[in-house]
Protein: LLM class flavin-dependent oxidoreductase
Organism: Peribacillus asahii
Amino acid sequence: MTKAHFYWFAPTNGDGEFLGLAKPQREPSLDYLIEVAQATEEAGFEGILVPTGIPYLDSWIVGSAIVQNTKRIKPLVAFRPGFIAPTVAAKLSATLDQFAKGRLLVNVVTGGSQKELGQDGDFTGHEERYERTGEFLDVIKKSWTGETFSHKGQFFETKDAQLVPGLYQQGRIPVYFGGSSDSAKEIAAQYADVFLQWGEPVAQVKEQLEDVKARTAKYKRTLEFGVRLHVVVRDTEQEAWKAAYHIISQIDEDVREKMNNVFEETDSVAQKRMTEIAQQGERFDKYSWTGIGKIRKGAGTALVGTPEQIEEALQDYIDAGVTHFVLSGFPHVEEALRFGKDVLPRFEKITV
């Protein structure tokens, strides 16, 4: 049997029971993000994703705060590979890994919006970004070994580099990586430990999974697969769908217009796939819903239903080959505890 790994989400751009407000109901203060992390740990999740990007607080600093205020959960720290040298990223990750006593995971995010990346001074095109990501991962993994090495490539150069002090973990930190373009999947095949997808229909997830698996075989590697989505779980189906529509019932029109522009400007293949799914209808598979994608970029789909129905939907992904789930709910404190009580115990029977 296969073990399923469950992670929650740190809402570092604000939180609340509604999406699409001009101002979040709960600001992403240090105290609140610690509360989310501690609720995540109490609920029984294995880890928590700390996102990266323009709307979010710095992921390394938030990850450090989480490490200092929890005992067990693993921060999955997302960061962009184009803004700092891989040897500097190696030092950052090694420092946090030491503080976390080996709990650190990293999510390398190439980025899918040239407009957003341009706000940080990065005007690199889609294909070149992935070429840079591949070279970045090559260098950072060499650095994590602790060996002295030199590198001269298209994007990065270093001479007699060595990571001191080294990692707490042995030899490497697990790398989570996503993307639906051929370039992204080829990078994942070479360097990732877990390939992440957004919550597309199970058949489409399985199709991409098999594609990446075939690519990975060329490099004599294996990796695991994950899905990022939202969850709305209630005691009855009627209550669950009422709660789902409640989340998007207060959308500010200026925010809606801004998000429409974001969807139009992206060069992310994965984002375009999300948009196409939403255009095909609000519901798909057994209990999946596209409503959140109307007002949130990135992961835009949710599983909606009773604990039994959510279990069934997650099991369908597991049967397709998915073993990692990065989940979220609104608000994140209450929904983490609810999921931990009503759904997580149902997967204790799934062991290695």
